[in-house]
């Protein structure tokens, strides 16, 4: 998202702005991931960005 828009993404608000910018460029749906902050979903059918938070988990095994 940062590469396509030239905008830095460090917060939910930034992700919302970038998502809307990509919709304006012609994307139908955009998901901007934010690591431990979750993600923001933007769709051309509903221009209101939606933040989906993550739930903290304890990693048991990464293999």
From TrEMBL:
It comes from the Eukaryota. Residues 1-63 form the Carbohydrate kinase PfkB domain. One of its GO terms (biological process) is small molecule metabolic process. Coiled coil: none annotated. Pfam families: PfkB. InterPro entries: PfkB_dom (IPR011611), Ribokinase-like (IPR029056). This is Carbohydrate kinase PfkB domain-containing protein. It comes from Cirrhinus mrigala.
């Amino acid at each position: 998202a940062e590469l396509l828009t030239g905008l830095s993404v460090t917060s939910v608000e930034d992700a919302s702005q970038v998502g809307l910018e990509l919709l304006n460029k012609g994307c139908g749906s955009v998901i901007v991931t934010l690591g431990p902050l979750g993600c923001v979903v933007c769709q051309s059918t509903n221009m209101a960005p939606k933040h989906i938070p993550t739930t903290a988990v304890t990693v048991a095994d990464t293999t």
